[in-house]
Amino acid sequence: MNCLYCDTENDVLMETCVFCGAPLHQKHPERSEMVYIEMCHLPFNKLAALHTYDLLVLLRLVRKERSQNYDLMRSAQKLSNSPSIDQEMLNYTEEQYKLYTKRMKVIEGILIDRMGYKPERIDDNLLAKLDSKVKKFENRKEKCLNG
Predict the structure, then answer these.
(1) What is the pTM (predicted TM-score) of this model?
(2) Which domain of life is it from (predicted)?
(3) What is the rounded distance in angstroms from the CA atom of residue 3 to the CA atom of residue 120?
């Protein structure tokens, strides 16, 4: 079995590479077909196993959801004296805002561990550049395996 990191040949029964010490039976994360907002509720270890591209897309979704919940919370607070807005609704909007804030921080923390920073803005341009780099890497990797 070859090491994914240094390409050193290792015995199949070994757990770590004899050259670099990397785990041999661990696979690199693969991109998901679809990223959706509910994925932010995955436990930390499952989030950490997602591809960096998927984490960026998920962070973009979570930030958008958080922003919408903030706007809803502020509107509910402004209308809190109105009989149509009860305390339950106000509490719910605050809980949702806090929930998505925490989820956002978890995803940002994973990205900081991987990239050394968290992107302030995740736009289509950033995602397109990363997508291009990932595809180039996958093509090179495929050529190495086949040739």
Answers:
(1) 0.81
(2) Bacteria
(3) 35
